[in-house]
């Protein structure tokens, strides 16, 4: 038994009309690369292409080593402010001096090894500037305790925190409302600035 010939073979798709769209289909947003940023560490501040939204430093090994060293020194300084740690350190220093005294009595020319690590070079003692890589003391403030040594460090850290805050609130309804208000204000200021540049104010006549 033979079947009648098909109008369109199996290998060829028959012509169809426009695909029927079911449901609300939104256009998929393109992945946008973050813009260039400046490294947050004081002393580096080089431009780099971030790989994620919360990347604060460039990926230079020397820069990352200095950042880790700054955090370690800050944790050590905060740890040494504890009363129990101070008492334990005083006891250790007393025992060390006793050992040196006993060794000097038995040896005619004792040679004491120089201090190493944090004892040889103290990076800073709290309070210190909160910007990574900065070893300066905060500015003197009579009202509140300052956290930064200068306005440049304060603005650098504030810009980073503000950028991360906007990124976290990007997918929320309140965040979209706030960003729309910020964009409207920026657009209004830009229009006013362009209007002032295109129509400069007339100069005042000389007195008299």
SSE layout:
Elements (H helix, E strand, L loop, with lengths): L36 E2 L8 E2 L12 H19 L3 H24 L44 H18 L4 H26 L10
Antiparallel strand pairs: 1-2
Envelope shape: extended
Strand order of the largest sheet: 1-2
Let me know the largest β-sheet.
2 strands, antiparallel
> Spans with pLDDT under 50 lasting ≥5 residues?
116-123
How far the N terminus sits from the C terminus, by CA atoms, comes to 116 Å
Category by helix and strand content: mainly alpha
Series of secondary-structure elements, N-terminal to C-terminal: EEHHHH
Portion in beta strands: under 5%
Percentage of residues assigned to helices: 40-55%
Whole-angstrom Rg: 33 Å
* SS elements, strand count: 2
SS field, number of helical segments: 4
Summed over residues and divided by their number, the pLDDT gives a mean of 77
Can you put this structure into words, describing what you see?
It contains four helices and two strands, in the order E-E-H-H-H-H. The protein has 208 residues and is an all-alpha fold. It has one domain (37-108, 123-196). It is extended and about 105 Å long.
